[in-house]
Design a protein that fits this description.
This protein is α/β, with parallel strands linked by helices and about 475 residues long. The protein contains 13 helices and 21 strands.
């Protein structure tokens, strides 16, 4: 979309390389785990794959006596965490550091009818009430306190993280998958590459990534660079990374579930061989269980696989932390616990769902950081942010939503969230992406209604970033 406005280049992140490497681990690891759980082993090679998987059990003593009941007995809930262990095969991706950490936590829910699945992300900076966890030989344990959600993994390992998620959501968890990413590149290559779409060219020296704009299929090395990149893509926020992570997983699932993979035994075996080598599970989640799950999921519509981020807002008391929005978060957890579908959720719906709208945010004022601030709130409400930046000319008097002919139907949804904005059509623009230019008259976004539950619908695996 051309408007004569030029974005200023993004500033340096200031994020330590160690933290960037940790992010790589959970993005690629979670991708492996979700693909394995949703797709499973679908050919008669279960016995050959069994030796690949490492098992580590979680005891009932770790989980406590007040676990939530399992309401839907045939539904399956799998906790997925990304490990930041940097010894052994992982040492080459960063300096070896004792212990493990997790920078992301997800819950994969497969319905009892095996006709839909949900992948729920919990932002790593979530400020939550953590439960007490017992100490072990490996971990010091955890006292009940208000803290960040990913503290539990370092304090009590996977057992404490399992207990934390159950206590916060009241969802009964059946299994867990802990992952690292040594097999990531080989899995991407085994599936024949994964398709992504870039809104503009990327030249990220830190991620060793140079790619043109548009739709393209990444090989393993390129995919690793893609998930390493942060400030050269999107708005650079953690929530933006979660959205991109979810879209990458969706693209991987589409590729794995395509006929080219499922009907090619050699390719499928290579994918599963690489993936199963990268995971640790409880002893109950065997390749055989994955086989049974995959058999029951055969033919599932990928539009019935949804990706959702727990509704959140930035904390007013602890800058940089996020808190969960209620009652929306509680509603989402109840839907999962009761094995219901988010499709039937009512309240605060829009004609075109926010998850189908991609927005570019440009700051046309002298207020530093305003574009990033506004983008974060838009992401909170379910929009996808393509990029943020500044206008070449300042100040801009009026806040304006610019759109092309193919994006016209999306304008009312964004306008409904903004307190005051004019609209401007760009007839030559061949995109449905919306560009929000923040002007000097900017006040704020409209307050979010208590019954606005659209964000808990997330987006499905058919989402196409190139559509914007």
């Amino acid at each position: 979309m051309s408007s004569g406005l030029v974005d200023a280049p993004p500033s340096e992140s200031g994020v330590p390389p160690r933290r960037r490497r940790r992010w790589v681990r959970w993005v690629v690891g979670i991708t492996l785990a979700v693909v394995l759980v949703v797709v499973g082993a679908t050919v008669s090679i279960t016995a050959m794959l069994t030796g690949n998987v490492t098992h580590e059990d979680v005891s009932e003593a770790d989980l406590g006596a007040t676990r939530p009941p399992k309401v839907a007995t045939s539904a399956m809930n799998v906790l997925v965490v990304g490990s930041d262990q940097r010894d052994g095969k992982n040492a080459k991706y960063g300096h070896s550091i004792a212990g493990e950490r997790t920078d992301t936590i997800m819950l994969v829910h497969v319905s009892s009818e095996r006709d839909n699945a949900m992948v729920v992300s919990f932002p790593r900076d979530s400020l939550v009430q953590l439960p007490a966890c017992r100490g072990t030989k490996k971990f010091p344990g955890q006292q009940a306190h208000l803290g960040m959600i990913n503290e539990s993994f370092n304090s009590g390992g996977i057992g404490c993280t399992w207990k934390t998620i159950e206590s916060l959501t009241r969802i009964h968890i059946d299994h867990y998958v802990k992952v690292d990413f040594t097999g990531f590149k080989s899995m991407v290559n085994a599936v024949g590459g994964v398709q992504v779409c870039l809104p503009e060219p990327v030249d990220d020296k830190k991620a060793l990534l140079r790619l043109p704009a548009g739709r393209q299929t990444l090989n393993g090395e390129q995919a690793l660079g893609y998930v390493r990149a942060r400030y050269s893509l999107g708005d650079g926020s953690d929530i933006g990374r979660i959205q991109r992570q979810q879209m990458f997983i969706a693209s991987m699932i589409k590729k794995v579930m395509s006929g080219d993979t499922l009907t090619n035994p050699t390719r499928l075996y290579n994918v599963l061989n690489a993936g199963t080598k990268a995971v640790t599970t409880d002893s109950g989640l065997t390749p055989g269980v994955m086989l049974d799950l995959a058999t029951s999921l055969k033919g599932i519509d990928i539009g019935s696989i949804r990706f959702i981020t727990t509704p959140w807002h930035y904390s007013l008391t602890q800058p940089g932390r996020v808190e969960w929005v209620q009652p929306q978060a509680r509603k989402l957890f109840q839907i999962v616990a009761k094995d219901q579908s988010v499709e039937g959720v009512k309240g605060g719906q829009t004609k075109v769902g926010r998850s189908k709208i991609t927005v570019e945010v440009r700051n046309g004022t002298w207020r530093s950081g305003l574009a990033t601030e506004v983008a974060a709130v838009l992401e909170q409400r379910g929009y996808h942010i393509a990029k943020t930046g500044d206008t070449a000319k300042k100040p801009q008097a009026k806040t304006t939503i610019m759109y092309g002919p193919t994006g016209e139907t999306r304008v009312p949804t964004l306008s409904n969230d903004i307190l005051k904005a004019t609209t401007r059509q760009l007839p030559a623009a061949r995109t449905n992406r919306l560009v929000l230019v923040i002007g000097d008259d900017w006040k704020s976004l409209k307050p979010q209604r208590a019954d606005d539950t659209e964000a808990i619908k997330g987006f499905d695996a058919t989402h196409d970033t190139c559509a914007a």
